[in-house]
TrEMBL record:
Subcellular location: Membrane
Name of the protein this chain belongs to: Major facilitator superfamily (MFS) profile domain-containing protein
Domain Major facilitator superfamily (MFS) profile: 24-508
Organism, as annotated: Populus tomentosa
Domain of life: Eukaryota
One annotated GO biological process: cellular response to nutrient levels
GO cellular component: membrane
Family: Belongs to the major facilitator superfamily. Phosphate:H(+) symporter (TC 2.A.1.9) family.
Acidic residues biased stretches: 514-523
CDD domains noted in UniProt: MFS_PhT (cd17364)
Primary localization: membrane
Statement: the UniProt record of this protein carries the keyword Membrane: yes
Keyword 4Fe-4S recorded: no
Amino acid sequence: MARDQLVVLNALDVAKTQLYHFTAIVIAGMGFFTDAYDLFSISLVTKLLGRIYYTKPGAPKPGTLPPNVAAAVNGVALCGTLAGQLFFGWLGDKLGRKKVYGLTLILMVLCSLASGLSFGSSANGTIATLCFFRFWLGFGIGGDYPLSATIMSEYANKKTRGAFIAAVFAMQGFGILAGGIVALIVSAAFDHRFKTPPYHENPAASLAPQADYIWRIILMFGAVPAGLTFYWRMKMPETARYTALVAKNAKQAALDMSKVLNVEIEVEEEKLQRIAQEPANSFGLFSKEFAKRHGLHLLGTTSTWFLLDIAFYSQNLFQKDIFTAINWIPPAATMNAIHEVFRIAKAQTLIALCSTVPGYWFTVALIDHLGRFFIQMMGFFFMTVFMFALAIPYHHWTLKPNRIGFVVMYSLTFFFANFGPNATTFVVPAEIFPARLRSTCHGISAAAGKAGAIVGAFGFLYAAQSTDQSKTDAGYPTGIGVKWSLIVLGIVNFFGMLFTLLVPEANGKSLEELSGENADENDGEKQAASPRMASV
């Protein structure tokens, strides 16, 4: 039978939605806003980097980053993020959410600024310096994933917890949008000030020397939102669940939450000591007890996030086809360097505005009504359907009269990623594991996602190359082609549906009920025996 919950934790669970909830969303959400800005802004400037550092005199087309350099520039931050998710996730359970939260923010601010100040005596030297700082930028960003999700879940009430955690993640959409807007403003200002001809008219003159400042300003701007939230992040008290259940300080937990909720909360030292001595509240991550109680849950959260990110980050496969098809980005030789940045930024901004942002907020609005399981299963289902619908008649979509249909199908695929598993894979790991392991398990799940992102962004970039060597992108070997790549991605999404069956439904339950921390030993055994989700 379940034990009585600590009064301080019950007060958080039943609290009405109030100002401190929205304050926590903004503080944690601005971290995610910055994360998205920093991770996705690099795609806005890679073409410019290619023109500045890799254009060969007399070439018919402007320079582009060689495949290995492009992979490093785009992928090094993802590698850093994976490492940061594991390290800071573990550290958040050891030192506390608040202490580590400030550390990740400082790292993000410093490395954003340093990325824009990258230097070198040669092209490869500058790119190597940029990659070094972007790895550590990614390392800081990685810490934000488990800490933001854990802090929000531990502050939220159980009725609207899903919406609050999803709202933090939804700020990612605004970060992507902001990246496009900043790039539009900076490139428009430089384009107005420095008039240069298109590349095909005068290759040398098409690249203004001042264009080197553009990519630096865009990357450095990522430090601004992170820096603005540092003071408020440091003023947030440690979460009551960490203070009580991990640090075992009932008095401090009650004192902190009394100030936050503006109510008197009883200090329950004796009850906390009894709870702490229960076997259910002492097993570690690598114990048989954890494997029995939460092993399938962790397999479910890691596998679904891994599979989702393979598909989600593979969108780069057909973005260039879409942009060309609807004439958002003309051939590179018909533009000067600065105007190319403007056109790429415009395309990303429109996609964020029309597809990315709405999907996130549909999840925020409906997650506590439909449930995590339903939204995740529905998202994977429609992603599977649309991937196969793009793949099987792929030749049909490449014909000029049908290209608008291709754009619509593409947009729907990623709308259902965001109104689906892209949001729920972030929410659920912050709810279903014990407080002493919550940040660690979220970090492991997120790191699995980033491993999938690396496979999706780079594995499929090579796989999607044409089977005809004469039609591959410069520097790439032959692949299996876009059609078969899309079929493989459809299969990946189908497996996402299957592994979703391992993920428990967290809707409307307290964190302690989900993790088994307020259950006696018999309850824990029953929970372990039925890891499948609650009915939806």
